[in-house]
Amino acid sequence: MKEISRINHVGIRVKSLAVSREFYEKLGFLFIEGPVGPEPVAVMEHPCGININFILNASPTAGPNLLMDVPEKHTGYTHMALEVSDLEAVKQQLESLKIPISGGPITIPSGATFIFIRDPDANVIELHLPPSS
């Protein structure tokens, strides 16, 4: 469909709005609104335009991330990738914020390099530096 122009938002089921909000604010996201609606949902947005909807109905006793942390591989979205302009600066900021890197850095043949972190609900976030042109 040629009418599709971009991703509007990513929905992430979380246990606690307060905990998730604090984590994503460290990554530069701003709280917009919520909780609203029947699920309920809260919205945060990064100044670059990336929007995240937190679905606030996760069980407080939820186990491991079923898409990433169990031997059986289930279908579904496994992570979101946030493009960055300076991976070394991002790594330094993560260290100062005491956010551990859970994977990488990995450089692929095209020259792209990326690292992975986890949010408080074990959702995977890739921080992706495209190859230099």
UniProtKB/TrEMBL annotation:
PROSITE patterns: GLYOXALASE_I_1, VOC. Residues 6-130 form the VOC domain. It holds the Pfam family Glyoxalase. The keyword Metal-binding applies. It comes from the Bacteria. Gene3D superfamilies: 2,3-Dihydroxybiphenyl 1,2-Dioxygenase, domain 1. One of its GO terms (molecular function) is lactoylglutathione lyase activity. Keywords: Metal-binding. It comes from Alginatibacterium sediminis. This is VOC family protein. Signal peptide: none annotated.
